Amino acid sequence: MADEEVDEVRARLEKYVGEPMGPPSVAPDPVNLPMIRHWVDALDDRNPIYDDEEVASKTRFGGIVAPPAMLQAWTMPRPKIEGIAERGGAPGEIPVDNPIPVLDAAGYVGTLATNSELEFMRYLKPGDHLHVTTEVDSISNRKTTSLGQGYFLTWITTYSTGDGEVVGRQLFRIFKFDPATIDPSKLGAAS
Amino acid sequence: MTSAQAQPLRSADVAVGDELPSFELPVTSTVIVAGAIASRDFMPAHHDAEFARAQGAPDMFMNILTTNGYVARFVSDWAGPEAMIRKIAIRLGAPAIPGQPLRFTGQIAKTSSDGNECVIEVAVRAANDLGDHATGTVIVSLPRGDGPLFV
Questions:
Q1: Structural domains of chain B, count
Q2: Of B40, B44, B62, whose CA–CA distance to B54 is shortest?
Q3: Domain enclosing residue B112, as ranges
Q4: How many angstroms separate the CA of residue A158 from the nearest CA in chain B?
Q5: Is residue B6, in this structure, part of any structural domain at all?
Q6: What is the CA radius of gyration of chain B?
Q7: Could you list the pLDDT tens digit for every one of the 191 residues in chain A?
Q8: Rounded to two decimals, what is the model's pTM?
Q9: Structural domain contains residue B35
Q10: Contact residues on chain B for A39, CB-CB shorter than 8 A
C-alpha cells in the first residue's frame, strides 16, 4: 500500500530530517511535589514512592520520585487559555519552521498519533529541572492506508537535566493525512 | 481500586506467560479532564466534547500522556514500589471516550538480567468496545534483592 516514490511534497520535507522540530526549551518549573500529587490524584495512582517520603526513603529510590509517565508533563509549555488560539485548538505557540506546517499547507491537515515510545534512564526527583530538545527522526514517503493518504512523521524528544544528564527520551509518531480521504470515526486518537 | 501491593514483587514470582491482574478503568469525562489537566495538556479535544465532535471525534478523548500514565500505573500496581519502569512503547488505536471502560491486560513476554537487576518485558493492552486503545510493551526492572536473577 506504500507509494514508494518520493513525491514533490516529500522532497520539500527532506531538509527537516535530523533537524530540530523547534527551539530547545526549559520546563516552566522543576519537578515538584504539588504537581506530583495533582497527577497521582488525577490517575488514582497509589504507588507510595510518589508521595510517601517514609516509604519511598526505604526503597531503592531513596526518597520521593516523580511518576515516570509525567516526563512530558514537566516540559509542557505554559498555555494561553482564552480562546485556545481562537478555537483552532493550539494552546501554545507552534514553531513555524518544521514539517507540520509544510504538510498542513499541502492539504495534509489531519493528525493522528500512532506511536509513543518513552524511555526512562532514571526516575526524576523533586528539584530536577528539565531541558528538552526535539529532533525530526524520519518522514515516510506518502502512504495510502485504510485511514487515507498521508505521511508518517517521527520525532525524538530528549529530556536532560541542567548539567546535561539525559534522563529520558520519547519517540513520537504521527500520521499527517488528507481528511478528504479518511473515515472520520477513526479520528479519536489524534492529539 | 487496585493499589501498589504491600509485598514487593520478587523475581522468583515471575515467569514468562504469567498474566498481570487485569484492571478496568471506568472512563468518564472527569477521568479524561483530570488526566489532561494534571499533564498540563490544554488541547480542547481533551476537555470539550463539542470541540472534539466538531473535529470528527465521537466525543472528548483521553490524551496520550494520561494513557501512558495509566499503562505505567497498571504495571507498577503489580510490580510494586521497588520496580522501575524503563520503557513504555505503545501503538495508539481506538480513542478512550466517556462511557467506554478501558480494560487493561498484560502478560509477561520475556525476562532477562542486567547487572543486579531482573528485567521483565510485559506485553500490555488497553481496550474498549471500539477496539484496542493502546497495545505495546512495558519494560520494568526489579532489584535482584535476595532472589535469583533471570537466566
A1: 1
A2: B44
A3: 11-143
A4: 14
A5: no
A6: 17
A7: 455 677 899 999 999 999 999 889 999 999 999 999 999 999 999 999 999 999 999 999 999 999 999 999 999 988 887 777 676 767 776 667 889 989 989 999 888 899 999 999 999 999 999 999 999 999 999 998 877 899 999 999 999 998 999 999 999 999 999 888 765 555 544 44
A8: 0.91
A9: yes
A10: 38-39, 69
Contact present, A50 and A64 (Cβ < 8 Å) = yes
Instruction: Judge whether B76 and B4 are in contact, CB under 8 Å.
Output: yes
Q: Residue B129, Cβ neighbours under 10 Å: how many?
A: 9
| Distance from C-alpha of B56 to C-alpha of B5, rounded to nearest angstrom | 41
DSSP-derived secondary structure for B64-88: HHHHHHHHHHHHHHHH-TT-EEEEE
Cβ of B42 within 8 Å of Cβ of A91? The answer is: yes
Question: Can you give the CATH number for the domain in which B104 is found?
Answer: 3.10.129.10
For the four alpha carbons of A81, A79, A36 and B62, in that order, the dihedral sign comes to positive
Task: For chain A, give the longest Cα–Cα distance.
Answer: 60
| C-alpha–C-alpha distance, residues A45 and A36, integer Å | 10
Grid cell at residue A74? 514537566
- Domains belonging to chain A, first-starting first, are 8-30+96-182 (3.10.129.10)
> In 3-state terms, chain A is what percent helix, strand and coil (to 5)?
30, 30, 45
Three cell numbers written together for B65:
500522556
Cβ atoms of residues A59 and B9 within 8 Å: no
Q: CB–CB of B81 and A41 under 8 A? A: no
List all residues 6 or more positions away from A96 whose beta carbon is below 8 Å from its beta carbon: none
